[in-house]
């Protein structure tokens, strides 16, 4: 089965500095919501609700990016859940 590539529509985004403990707490809450199948995303000016199917695709990705001018390294750890509706 092939899919046409469609433009991406960002429905929710939250990016902020948090402590490791705060991030862990957020991920534990997210895990409980994912297990129930109903996820609610909230921030002060936006809110989204989504239902996750029983067997979505799951990806874990760790990237290292190096600034070509400064040599400074940045890491990104991403957890991604994908499904089609």
Chain-wise SSE layout:
Blueprint: H1 20-36, E1 38-43, E2 46-51, E3 57-66, E4 73-82
Protein name: Amphi-Trp domain-containing protein
Domain Amphi-Trp: 6-84
Pfam families: Amphi-Trp
Give a written overview of the molecule.
With 85 residues, this protein is an alpha+beta fold. It has one domain (20-82). Helices cover 20% and strands 38% of the residues. It has 1 helix and 4 strands. It has one helix at residues 20-36, and strands spanning 38-43, 46-51, 57-66, 73-82. It has a two-stranded antiparallel ribbon with strand order 1-2. The protein has a two-stranded antiparallel ribbon with strand order 3-4. The longest helix has 17 residues, at 20-36. The chain starts with 19 loop residues before the first helix and ends with a strand. The model has no long low-confidence stretch (mean pLDDT 93). Residues 6-84 form the Amphi-Trp domain. This is Amphi-Trp domain-containing protein. It comes from Natronorubrum thiooxidans. Pfam families: Amphi-Trp.
From the structure above, extract its key features:
alpha+beta, 85 residues, two-stranded antiparallel ribbon, 20% helix, 1 helix
What does this entry show, briefly?
By secondary structure, the chain is an alpha+beta fold. The protein has one helix at residues 20-36, and strands at 38-43, 46-51, 57-66, 73-82. The protein has one domain (20-82).
Order of helices and strands: HEEEE
Q: How much is the radius of gyration in Å?
A: 16 Å
Number of discrete helical segments: 1
Number of strands: 4
InterPro entries: Amphi-Trp_dom (IPR027598)
Organism: Natronorubrum thiooxidans
Protein name: Amphi-Trp domain-containing protein
Domain Amphi-Trp: 6-84
């Amino acid at each position: 089965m092939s899919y046409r590539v469609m433009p991406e529509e960002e429905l929710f985004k939250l990016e902020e500095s948090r402590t490791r403990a705060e991030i862990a707490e957020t991920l534990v809450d997210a895990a409980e919501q994912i297990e129930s199948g109903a996820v609610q995303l909230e921030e002060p000016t936006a809110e989204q609700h989504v239902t996750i199917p029983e067997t979505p695709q799951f990806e874990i990705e760790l990237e290292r990016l190096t600034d070509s001018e400064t040599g400074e390294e940045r890491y990104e750890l991403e957890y991604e859940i994908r499904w089609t509706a």
